[in-house]
Amino acid sequence: MTFSSRELKARAVAEGFNLVGITPARPAPHLDAYLSWIDARMHGEMGYLARADRVARRRDLNAILPGVRSLVIVGLDYALAAGVVPAEVLNDPARGRIAAYAWGRDYHDVLLPRLEALATWLGARAGHAWRAYVDTGALLEREHAQQAGLGFIGKNTLLIHPRRGSGFLLGEFLTTAEFDHYDPPGRETLCGRCTRCLAACPTQAFPQPYVLDARRCLSYLTIELKGWIPRGLRPQMGNWVFGCDVCQEVCPWQRFGVRVVEAALLPVDADRAAPRLADLLALDEAAFRRRFGGSPVERLGRARLVRNACVAAGNSRQPALLPLLQTLLADPDPLVRGHAGWALARLGGAWALDLWRDRLRDEPEAQVRREFELSRAEYPRPD
Questions:
Q1: Quick one: 171 exposed, middle or buried, by C-beta within 10 A (0-12, 13-18, 19+)?
Q2: pLDDT tens-digit series, residues 120-151
Q3: Distance CA 147, CA 161 (A)
Q4: 94: Cβ contacts below 8 Å, ≥ 6 apart
Q5: Where are the beta strands (DSSP E) in the chain?
Q6: What residues are labeled active site?
Q7: What pLDDT band is residue 383 in, cutting at 50, 70 and 90?
Q8: HSE of 139, CA atoms in CB hemisphere, 13 A
Q9: Which candidate among 22, 33, 108, 114 keeps its CA 20 to 30 Å from the CA of 232?
Q10: What is the mean pLDDT of the chain?
Q11: How far, in Å, CA of 85 to CA of 100, rounded?
Q12: 276 pairs with which residues across the strands?
């Protein structure tokens, strides 16, 4: 028995999704390229991407759901910066910038209940088994979405819809149901000779078109990286404190981006999209939870957000932030102490280094002490 794809798509729209495509459950067509990317260690500290069991699931979707026949991929638009938050706010060096997808509620909490409701609705009619994911399954979801006709893969490795741009979030469920019609794949690419995204990347994270070295990507550095941000990349991070939108914003296809209608993904105010660095540097655990609870930023944790804010402060040329950075030299978290010291040295020069040196007398962490030595070499005392 096959199920009507038209009925399923109509129900997906009723659940609030902007895009829906259906594709047979086959391995992603460029799985070998992904494995080569893993072999090149471009996934950085995201070890879960290379785990043998997860690679096995990508090779054979039956390892996720025995008897799987189909993949249903859905998309939900979110608002990129244009027309939502003024550019002068987002680019204010006294503010820390957050990627647009994280301005509102946690997208997992928005998409997953709707996706599960859609799969349950199908189950009541088709009697199928299913597994639903929003950014958590061992799937190359952008490639599967391209196979389901939802767009093409850009040189920035993102999925781009030719009439919507790339400002949408994906979710999917695997199902044992079979459909009467499957969507034809989208074009492999429509980028042509354009290289705007590659040229605009602040940290030059694309060694070649369609290949992202995550170890240099601002989204990785500010979100996935749990430890010390490489010193050589810190000056290129600007005021980004959570994620990055640069390679999307410069893409010509983004002119077709739609204004989001999902209120849950919009910022409650400009401070949610670009909070003041002074506020971020002053956060304690309770204030962090109050301010970012229920948003994607909450999963980052207070220490890493303040770490990122220290880097943005070091890039800000805002001497008014020096007292806050000075206070953070005594923070309980060594990651915060070390990045605060770097920012102090970058903003305050020799005076800041003298202050930091005095604080180091009882410093137990070798990496914090090493940060000081490197900063002393980088910002030497003038003659």
A1: buried
A2: 999 998 899 999 999 999 999 999 999 999 99
A3: 12
A4: 276, 277, 278, 316, 318, 320, 321
A5: 2-3, 19-24, 70-77, 97-98, 130-133, 152-153, 159-160, 168-175, 178-179, 240-242
A6: 135
A7: very low
A8: 28
A9: 33
A10: 94
A11: 10
A12: 95
Instruction: For residue 7, give the nearest of 107, 100, 125, 158 by alpha carbon.
Output: 125
Using an 8 Å Cβ cutoff, are 280 and 309 in contact? yes
In degrees and rounded to multiples of 5, residue 159 shows phi and psi of -80, 130
Distances (CA, A) of 73 to 17, 28, 89, 340: 10, 13, 35, 43
Burial class (CB in 10 A: 0-12, 13-18, 19+), 42: buried
Instruction: Tell me how far apart the alpha carbons of residues 59 and 13 are, in angstroms, rounded to a whole number.
Output: 31
159 close to 150: Cβ distance less than 8 angstroms? yes
CA separation for the pair 165, 258 (Å, rounded): 8
- Kindly report the pTM of this predicted structure: 0.95
Q: What is the DSSP code (8-state) at residue 145?
A: H
Pairing mode of beta strands 19-24, 70-77:
antiparallel
Number of Cβ within 10 Å of residue 46's Cβ equals 14
Contact predicate 148/184, CB 8 Å: no
Q: Checking DSSP bridges between strand 19-24 and strand 97-98, what pairing results, if any? A: unpaired
33-80 residue pLDDT tens? 999 999 999 999 999 999 999 999 999 999 999 999 999 999 999 987
* Tokens describing residue 145: 């979405």
The SS3 call for residue 287 is helix
Sign of CA dihedral 11, 13, 16, 22: positive
Closest CA to 120 of 136, 132, 108: 132
CB contact at 8 A, 163 and 186: no
Q: Is the dihedral of CA 113, 114, 119, 122 positive or negative?
A: positive
CA 240 to CA 383: how far, in whole Å? Answer: 34
DSSP string covering 181-210, please? Answer: --PPPPPS---TT--HHHHH-TT---SBTT
pLDDT: is 84 or 156 the higher one?
A: 156
Condensed to tens digits (0 to 9), the pLDDT of residues 213-227 reads 999 999 999 999 999
